[in-house]
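step 3/5: co-fold with magnesium ion
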Amino acid sequence: MNKIIFHIDVNSAFLSWEAVYRLRIRGEKTDLREIPSAVAGDVKKRHGIILARSTPAKKYGVRTGDTINDALKLCPNLVMVPPHYDLYESCSEAMMEILKEFSPCVEQYSVDEAFCDMTGTVGLYGSAVVAATLLKDKIYSELGFTVNVGISTNKILAKMASDFKKPNMVHTLFPEEIEQKMWPLPVGDLFFVGPASKRKLHALGIHTIGQLANTDPDILRAHFKKYGEVIHAFANGIDLSVVAEEAPPNKGYGNSTTIPFDVDDGSTAKMVLLSLAEKVCTRLRADNVMATVVAVSIVDIYFRHSSHQMTLISPTNITNEIHKAACKLFDRLWDGTPIRHLGIHTSKIVRGEVYKQINLFDMNRYEKLSRLDAVVDTIRERYGEDSVKRAIFLKGPVYHMAGGISPEKRKPMYKEGITL
Amino acid sequence: MKMLNMPVDVIATFNVQGKIRPNYIRLEDEEHTLQTFKIENIVFSREEKYAGMPAIHFCCNIIRNGCAQLIHIKYHVKTHQWVLVREG
Ligand SMILES: [Mg+2]
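step 4/5: write tokens
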């Protein structure tokens, strides 16, 4: 049986979410979505950039990533609002909850995007288009913002489909529609083709996705190596990856992050692992549990997924111990291909007081580290996550507690409650 | 004209089923002094979750200057705040 995959994408996510908050929670009368407006990082600093813009602002030529100055030149009456990342997390969470009502298998892809495996749900909701329309309308009526839903038989095509005309639309892109709906598009629209690859493809005379699809894979391999094969497959609508549902939350504690740059050296990767371990262990300790199994997963720049796990001698929730295990796993697992995504997952959770198998060589360390972690947790709880950090993170490119929404996006936040 | 949802003081009862009923509300009168009004009856209530923030919306009647007046108030479940959405 063919699979049915949905890709759900919030329309101008940050802007829509700001708009809903202002309309429905604060009770303002203007809908940011209906006027030229943008969410902009650090409006006071000149260097801030546009993070999201409304459709009317788009008509002025304002693009995501423009500097505030450039945007104001294009559209002098642009209304700019600062970002509120805790609001986005609340909107995102609520949407994922609705998606999980519709599909048993949901993969959150980013804060405002998710894949749902809807295979076999035809008896529940009717055809895929009917189900998608129902889903999108439910999100709008309950949460107040619009989404696009792309439907196909795999993830890449579903994702391409949700990017067609916006907002508030359902699109299909089944394999038999590729030629008509996807091949005429510019090659830069293909998922995974960035500006640099686009220029390189143009130089080869490849301007549309269709041209890419019909290029001899050997030529692409010669110019792009493995990446050439990947984009050639994508252009032909081939994607074998499955909707990867996360492990149920109570069975283990995990954390993963997409790194803003490709990591090609082991020491940076281990720094990322440390920041992930920091967060995972904080959560383990907060719940007063320990983990017995540690797993590390890597997604490389070709979207290949690999993972490896090991059982510890005795359960732990100490950051250093989990990190040490993660590094050992990483060394066994990594083949040197640049990395874009790293994850740590812990399982076989044991609760409460555990008899610790003390290793002869570091028995003092265990006591010390465990007390150290407890103190750090208390300080962070009282004075914020950033009040204490390991020196290794001071100047590095990696945030000291990775995962969730990336730190540069974390502040400022809406205070608890209604700000007036 | 009222622009924003205004936080208000409310006295409410919570029954054993977890049902919430606002009983009294404190509003400003024309002279900007606070007055307490009894909530006479609830016309309807509904649960909302706009922007992922759960709230219960009540449309109810108070008696003001001898006549019944409709007001809309919301209880924010996460922050335990009551806000006045609109009067009339
Ligand atoms: Mg989006």
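step 5/5: annotate
Chain B touches chain A at residues 2-7, 48-53, 55, 76, 78-79, 81, 83, 85 (CB under 8 Å).
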